[in-house]
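From the methods appendix. Each design record in this collection lists the tokenized structure first, followed by the designed amino acid sequence. Records were kept in a plain field format so they could be parsed without special tools. The example shown here is representative of the layout used throughout.

RECORD:
FOLD TOKENS (114 positions):
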């Protein structure tokens, strides 16, 4: 796993806790839920809509296309018509910057930023 710099926590908070980023060609959605940060694939597994254009309700993201829901903490489908889980990605925060763990590439930090 490679750790990549994503975005500053303050930018995510200013965006209302929901923000899209493309990192190394991977389309990601970042979520701020209370004091925690999560990252998932930005594409709904049901209709390929951008979840970053949806509605974050607590820990659930509602897809803007068909109103299916996912738990951003686990990626689990949480409401129809969605039945397949989202891919999730580990995140770390270091000095106000969010880093995301991606399965390929080289780490900007050289090691886990934890």
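DESIGN:
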């Amino acid at each position: 796993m490679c750790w990549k710099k994503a975005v500053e926590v303050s930018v995510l908070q200013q965006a209302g806790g929901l923000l899209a980023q493309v990192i190394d060609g991977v389309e990601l959605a970042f979520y701020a839920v209370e004091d925690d940060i999560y990252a998932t694939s930005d594409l709904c597994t049901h209709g390929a809509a951008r979840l970053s254009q949806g509605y974050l309700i607590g820990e659930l993201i509602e897809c803007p296309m068909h109103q299916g829901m996912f738990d951003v903490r686990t990626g689990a489908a949480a409401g129809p018509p969605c039945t397949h889980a989202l891919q999730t990605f580990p995140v770390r925060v270091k000095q106000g910057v969010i880093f995301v763990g991606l399965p390929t590439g080289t780490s900007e930090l050289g090691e886990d930023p934890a």
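APPENDIX NOTE: The chain has one domain: 2-102.
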